[in-house]
Amino acid sequence: MKKTSKKAKLFAYEFAGGAAMAYLLQVKIKGTSIKKEDKIEGFYEWEDLFNGKFYPMKVMFEDLMKLEKSAMVALAGPITESLGKNGKVTWTGEEDGYDYAMEVLSWVGPPDESTEKLFELYSKRCELILSCPDVWHAVEALAAHILQKRRLSGEEIERFLYQAFKKPTGE
């Protein structure tokens, strides 16, 4: 039996949570990977909803929806990791997703109290979504799948999540 490090398991949960949130928000998933070398590293990638253009941001409904989706996908990874590790969400401010989410939210305006309020709002929304039993079950199953396969394309992740969220039809 292959031994899996604690760090690899945390990466898998983080990536699975981000992928599940992206899937639920209909954001295209590009792929994920956990490297097997001595040093455990990994990446999780999703669609850039702004096509690399961050400024200036049009204040329109579509852009605000993109902003919300980007922030929630960025937050979902560290929130999932924290839920898996602590059973609750605790922020240290050192998480990768924290910095990215704060950057995304700062596009609304300069970092201030309103940015912190948006961060709290989206964090809580992510936590509530990820804590739903059906979603958490899908995240756990995907994390195990990521650990087993170590590298998955976006299409593989989306197929896996489609099956995980598919409800049996009544007869």
Commentary on this structure:
The chain is mainly alpha-helical. It has 6 helices and 3 strands; from the N terminus they run αββααααβα. It has helices spanning 6-24, 61-86, 96-106, 113-131, 133-149, 154-165, and strands at residues 29-34, 42-46, 151-153. β1 and β2 (42-46) form a beta hairpin. The relative contact order is 0.18.
Q: For the record, what CATH class applies?
A: Mainly Alpha
- How many H/I helices? 6
As for the number of domains, it is 1
User: How many whole angstroms does the radius of gyration measure?
Assistant: 16 Å
Low-confidence stretches: none
Rough outline? globular
Quaternary class: single chain
User: What is the CATH superfamily label?
Assistant: Peptidase M41
* Order of helix and strand elements from N to C terminus: HEEHHHHEH
Tally of DSSP β-strands:
3
Sheet-strand content, in percent, reads: 5-15%
The overall average pLDDT, rounded, is: 79
Record the strand order, biggest sheet: 2-1-3
CATH architecture field: Up-down Bundle
Instruction: Please describe the biggest sheet, giving its number of strands, its sense, and whether it closes into a barrel.
Output: 3 strands, antiparallel
Structural class by secondary-structure content: mainly alpha
Q: CATH topology, which one?
A: Methane Monooxygenase Hydroxylase, Chain G, domain 1
Percentage of residues assigned to helices:
55-70%
C-alpha termini separation? 41 Å
